[in-house]
Amino acid sequence: MISDVVTPAAETPAANGHGEAHSTAGFKALMLGSIGVVYGDIGTSPLYALREAVVAASGHAGSVNPQAVLGVLSLILWALIIVVTLKYVLILLRADNNGEGGTLALMALAQRAVGHRAGAIVLLGIISGALFYGDAVLTPALSVLSAIEGIKLVTVAFDPYVVPLTVIILLALFAVQSRGTARVAAFFGPVMCIWFAVIAIAAVPPIMRQPEVLLALNPFYAVSFMIHHGIIGFVTLGAVFLAVTGAEALYADLGHFGKRPIQTAWLAMVLPSLALNYLGQGALLIADPKAIENPFFLMFPDWALIPMVGLATAATVIASQAVITGAYSLTRQAIQLGLLPRFEIRHTSEAHSGQIYIPRINMLLLISVMLLVLMFRSSSALASAYGISVTGTMVVTAMMGFVVIWKVWRWSPLAAAALIAPFLFLDLTFLAANLLKVFEGGWVPLALGAVVMLLMYTWRRGSRLLFEKSRKLEFPLADLVAMLEKRPPQRVSGTAVFLTSDPVSAPTALLHSLKHYKVLHEKNVILTIEIARTPRIDLSERVRLEQISETFSKVTLRFGFMESPNVPKALAIARKLGWQFDIMSTSFFLSRRALKPAAHSGMPRWQDHLFISLSRTANDATDYFQIPSGRVVEVGTQVTI
Fold first, then answer.
1. Residue (of 204, 553, 629, 137) closest to 386 by Cα position
2. Where are the alpha helices (DSSP H) in 354-500?
3. Is residue 57 a contact partner of residue 233, using CB atoms and an 8 Å limit?
4. pLDDT of res. 25
5. Of all helices (H) and strands (E), which one includes residue 284?
6. C-alpha distance from residue 267 to each of 31, 199, 274, 289 (Å)
7. Are 392 and 449 in contact (CB under 8 A)?
8. CB burial readout 98-122, b (16+ within 10 A) else e
9. What CATH code is assigned to 26-114+124-379?
10. Residue 170 contacts by C-beta under 8 Å, 6 or more apart in sequence?
C-alpha cells in the first residue's frame, strides 16, 4: 500500500527544472508537436459536431433550415472563441503548477494555496479526474467510428464493415501502447498539419459558392437562434459542445510543450482551419440540405473520399493516442497524490520521463472502448454520450481556476469571480444541455465517473484511516533509538533501510526485525518518501539527511507528483551529503500489511471490503520504487481497519 511508505510533502517552493526545456527546444518543433498531440481531439470534431448540432436544431435530418444552420454555425464559432480561446488559451494556460497543467495539477496548486481547508478542492479534483476517464473511453470509440463511417459514402456495400474495421483499428492502437509513443509521435505533428490544411482548403469552394454563410461570424445569429428556438435551442447546445471537446487537452499537455507553442498553434493554424471547415460544411448544407447525411465528407469530390477516410482515420487515431497517454499521466498523478493504489508503471523512453505505459489502465480502457463500440455501433449514437464527461470536467476546472486566481494570483474575490463567472455560467449551461441526453447514452460517462470517484474516495479515506490507526499503535522512534543505543543488541555488518510513511514513529518492519532476528545492522536508515504538490522536484532538493545517533539516520526523498520514484537513483545523490551508500551491502526492509475489516471503523463495512480489495491489487512497493528485489526483506503484519 502506498500509505505504508509514502507521505504527502509539505508546501514546497517552486522548484522545477522541467520548464527550462521549453527555452532550449526549438519553438517550431514544440509548436508542431503541440499540433499533433494537443489538438488531435478538437481537430477531429468537424467529423461529427456540425452534423449532430444541425440535426438537433432541425428535429430530424430531413428538414434542414438555412436559418437554423446559420444559428448553429454561429454558436459553434463563438463557443470556439469564448470557451477555447478566451478561457483556456488566454487565461487557464497561465494557471500552471510549476510549468504543468491538467485538472490534478490545478487541484494540487489550489490545495497548496488553501492549505488544510482543502477538502472541497480534493473532492473537485476527484470529480474531474473521474470524468476524464470517461473522456478517455469515449474519444477513441467516437472519433475512429466517425472516420470509418466515411467509407459508406463510397458505396453502401461498406456499411456492414464499419464496426469490424473500427474494432480492428482500436485493437491495433491499444496493442502498440506498450512499445511507447516516441516513434509514432514523430509523425503526429506533420499528419495533423496536413489534416488541418486539407480541411481548411476543402471548405473554400463551398464558402465561395454560398458567401452568405459568413454571416454566422456575427454573434447575433447565435443569440437569435437561442431566443427563437426555446427548448430545441437548449438541446442543440449539447450537440454544439461537441465542437469544443478536447479543449481540456490544451491545459493538460501544458507541461509537454509550454504555453507559447500551444497558444501560437491554436491562433495561427488550428482555430482558422476549424472555423473555415465549419463554415464550409454550413455553406454545403445551405446549398444542399440532403448533405446532412455526412457534410464533412461530402465537401470532397468522389475521387478524394477514400484518401480522406484514410487521413481522417489517421487523425482520429492520433486523437485517441493523445487521450490514452493522458489517461496514463493522470493515473500516475492520482497514485502520487494518494487517490489510487499503486499500479505497475513502465517507462517507454529513457530520455522522456513523461512517456509511460500502465498495463492495467490500458487493458481497462480497451475493454471499455470495445464495449462502447459494440453497444452503440454509430458515431451519432455515441455523440449523445460524449459531452457530459467533458462539460463536467470544464465546470470543475473553472471552479478550481477561481481559487487559483483568488489565492495564488492574489486577485480580490470579486475580481476573480468577475473573470471566471461568465465562463462558469457557460460551462454550466453546456452541462445542463448535455444532461438532457442522460437516457440516450449520457449515463455511460456518468456511471464510469461514479465508479472511479467511489474508488478514489475509498482509497483516500481508507489510507488516511489506516495511517491514523497505525500511528496510535506505533512506538516513538526517538525513544526506541535511545533504548537501542543504551543497550544495543547483536550487530551485523551492512546497512538496513526501513521504509516508512511516518518518520516520527518506529517503522513496523524495524520492530518486527528486532523481535524475530534479535540483531541490528551497523548502519540503520529510516527512509521516508514524500510526494510534493509540485510536478517535479529539483535534484538539489531530492534528498534530506539527518543523523539521529551514531548508528541511526533519517533520509527523506522528495518527488514531484508527475515523477516516478526511483529510490536507488535518489539515494545515490545522498553520497554527496556524506552517506556512503552501497546498494550491494544494503538491505531494504518493507512492511507488508494484511488488512482485515474491524468491527468498528470509520467507513461502512462494504467500503472496508472495497478498500481491502483495492489494497490487494496494488503493485508491489519493490517494483514501484524500483528497488532491486534481491535486496528486499518483507516483514508481514496483520492490521484491522
1. 137
2. 359-376, 379-403, 413-435, 443-473, 477-486
3. yes
4. 46
5. helix 271-287
6. 11, 16, 11, 31
7. yes
8. bbbbbbbbbbbbbbbbbeeebeebb
9. 1.20.1740
10. 140, 141, 144, 320, 366, 369, 370, 373
Q: Which three cell numbers stand for residue 66?
A: 438555412
- Which sign does the torsion angle of CA 509, 511, 514, 516 carry? negative
318, 40 in Cβ contact below 8 A?
Answer: yes
The DSSP letter of residue 636 is: E
Bridge-partner residues for 547, per DSSP? 553
| Span 458-476, pLDDT tens digits | 999 999 888 888 777 778 8
The region, left, alpha or beta by phi > 0 then psi within -120 to 50, assigned to residue 267 is alpha
Q: Which of 45, 64, 618 has its CA nearest to residue 341?
A: 618
- Residues 368-397: b if buried by 16+ CB within 10 A, e if exposed: bbbebbeebeebbebbbbbbbbbbbbbbbb
H or E element, residue 206: helix 182-209
- Per the CB < 8 A criterion, the answer to whether 529 and 555 are in contact is no
Whole-angstrom Cα distance, residue 561 to residue 18? 13
Give Dmax (Cα) for the chain.
95
pLDDT for 448-459, tens place per residue?
Answer: 999 999 999 999
Residue ranges covered by each domain of the chain: 26-114+124-379, 474-640
Out of 87-101, 164-178, 181-195, 503-517, least confident range: 181-195
How many residues are there in the chain? 641
What digits encode the pLDDT tens for the residues 293-333? 899 999 999 899 999 999 999 999 988 888 888 888 889 88
Distance linking the first and last C-alpha atoms of the chain: 13
Which residue, 361, 413, 380, 383, is CA-closest to 129? 361
Distance CA 281, CA 70 (A): 11
The cell for 543 is 534528498
Position 601, amino acid: S
Question: From residue 156, how far is each of 111, 147, 149, 303 by CA, in Å?
Answer: 55, 15, 10, 16
